[in-house]
Amino acid sequence: MAQGSGQEEQTFNEFYTEVKEIEKRDSVLTSKQQIDRLLRPGATYFNLNPFEVLQLDCDTPLEQIKKKYRSLSILVHPDKNPDNQERAQQAFEIISKAYKTLENEATRKKCLEVYEEAKDRTDMMIAEKKKKLKKEGKYDGVPEDEPAKYKHAIYVMVMKLFADIERRRQQLEVRDMEERKRKREAEIEEEEQRDLQKEWQKNFEESRQNRVNSWHTFQAGSSSSSSSSSATAATAVKSKKSKKAKYTSFNPPKIKPETR
């Protein structure tokens, strides 16, 4: 992990040195050089810092920021680069975004806070390094005692802090997207449940009359069957009574006394 971090810092330092050499070689960069500076591999890391994009110190007044933005935006404007319009448009958007960040008082203040935190962390790191060297009896100063290297150390820390901010922003964005997706899926599921409930209720209402009619038919059949049974039973009872009456009304003949 430490080895990977060391390699990353070495790559960063090499890139930084190369960029600064280009700037020293030509203080007023041409359109092509500016476009290459903003779009070269790894530049995304640097473009997170709006001061770096506009090649300004963090204590530059807003009026100077506006002037630098105008000069750079003219250099990379797509209309000024007809043979390279697509890349020029990308560079122009990067410069415009950086200017909008610094033009706004609130976002410019946040950027300045990054510089302040970078300075505090760098000072703390240097103090820890000195303390360790003194404890080991090896202290003979540190490279950051030189103003140029101290400034470079702060610069590196600034870039890392901007990268951390961007990483957190992306993580929050992904988390927010996942949360919105989860809520939407829950809403869809609720809608489907409501639709199913409505469909069930509709079918229930439509089949109610059929159930009522079936019940009435059943009731009518039961009543008819009961009436028929009652009539049959009544007829049977009446028949029995008639037979009984017939038998009970029979009078046997009287026996006459025998005469001699």
From TrEMBL:
Residue span, J domain: 49-119
Composition bias type Polar residues, residue spans: 210-219
Segments of skewed composition (Low complexity): 220-237
Superkingdom of the organism of origin: Eukaryota
Signal sequence, renumbered to the chain: none
Ranges annotated as biased composition (Basic and acidic residues): 176-186, 194-209
GO cellular component: nucleus
Region described as Disordered: 176-260
InterPro entries, A to Z: DnaJ_domain (IPR001623), DNAJC8 (IPR042858), J_dom_sf (IPR036869)
Protein name according to UniProt: J domain-containing protein
Organism from which the protein derives: Anopheles epiroticus
